[in-house]
Specification:
Helix content: under 10%
Oligomer: single chain
Number of domains: 7
Number of strands: 32
Largest sheet: 2 strands, antiparallel
CATH architecture of the largest domain: Ribbon
């Protein structure tokens, strides 16, 4: 008797869910769907991500799902060409958020913010570093001045970096430096650390940076002999005889102007020598008018002091009191109240 095969797969419940039923001669078998495996009672999902049975590109993460898995690019990467996860350059695309005074540095999947030299901080702020708080930032003989992102070393007065280093200050030899020109005129320039001083020649005094003339005349008023005048000159002094004296300044002798020039005075006067000069004395009855001797009209002043009964007569260099009629001159020749005597007495 011929018997036909029974197709068990057509019967309900022959295989568990999530599986395929395959009929065979006299039997059948069940195969779980792809991504599932039989655990003896049912088909359950295979976690490919945990068992390592997956293929994802670099820089991506495996995510399990029912009956399979998928791959998603990690943060900072972008899926490309359906097979690659390429790095996103946040610095180039402007997605990076870096603070002021910093540079954006791209990395695989992310970026970081690097503060500029002279600044310090984190991803959110970069602040200026005050290098001057470190006493060793600048060399000796300089002052540290903090600036944004940097600092300056300013050399003290009398020191210079000389172009060799921004932080090393060396003494300037002012005495030999052409920029300063000739120093210490009337003396010798002596260089010191950060400065110089002048060793001055005789007759000069040092103000430290220059040589100033000593005014010997002001310092010692009696430095010259009598009848001479002290004249200050650079580095010394001279004694010059005063007007009316002759000599070398050390010794001054009076000049007798009257003996040297008899015509120095008016013909009607007498030359009289005085210390350092002379005077012209007009003869009696004459008065000086500038360099001239002119007659003095004594009669103009109180009638020359004649007696009331007398008449005053002026003459060159003198005058006369002449008693009038009825009067006779006394021994005083008409001068004064008793200069004339009456001829008749009643």
């Amino acid at each position: 008797m011929w018997m036909s095969d029974i197709d068990e797969c057509k019967q309900t419940g022959a295989c568990p869910e999530l599986s395929h039923c395959f009929n065979t001669a006299g039997s059948f078998h069940c195969d779980c769907w792809g991504g599932y495996h039989y655990n003896g009672t049912r088909c359950e999902d295979i976690n490919e991500c945990s068992v390592g049975n997956f293929t994802c590109p670099d820089n991506s993460t495996c995510h399990n799902k029912e009956g399979g898995y998928n791959c998603s690019c990690n943060s900072g990467f972008l899926y490309s060409n359906n097979s690659l996860c390429l790095d996103v350059d946040e610095c180039a695309t402007g997605k990076a958020e870096c603070p002021n005074a910093s540079n954006c540095q791209n990395t695989a999947g992310w970026y970081f913010c690097e503060c500029w030299d002279g600044y310090a901080g984190n991803q959110t702020v970069c602040e200026d570093v005050d290098e001057c708080l470190n006493n060793s930032t600048c060399s000796d003989h300089s002052v540290c001045v903090n600036t944004e992102g940097s600092f300056l070393c300013l050399c003290d007065h009398g020191f210079s970096s000389n172009g060799t280093s921004s932080t090393r200050c060396e003494d300037i030899d002012e005495c030999s430096h052409p920029e300063f020109g000739p120093l210490c005129t009337h003396g010798t320039c002596i260089n010191t650390a950060g400065s110089f001083y002048c060793a001055c020649h005789k007759g000069f005094w040092s103000s430290h940076t220059s040589c100033l003339d000593i005014d010997e005349c002001e310092k010692n008023e009696s430095i010259c002999q009598p009848h001479s005048t002290c004249v200050n000159i650079p580095g010394s002094y001279e004694c010059n005889c005063n007007l009316g004296y002759t000599g070398n300044g050390t010794y001054c002798k009076d000049i007798d102007e009257c003996s040297k020039s008899p015509l120095r005075c008016h013909k009607s006067s007498q030359c009289i020598n005085t210390p350092g000069s002379y005077v012209c004395v007009c003869a009696a009855g004459l008065i000086a008018l500038g360099s001239l001797c002119v007659d003095l009209d004594e009669c103009q002043s109180n009638r020359g002091g004649c007696h009331p009964a007398a008449t005053c007569y002026n003459s060159a260099g003198g005058f006369q009191c002449q008693c009038g009629n009825g009067w006779d001159a006394s021994t005083r020749n008409g001068h004064g109240m008793d200069g004339c005597l009456p001829l008749f007495t009643f």
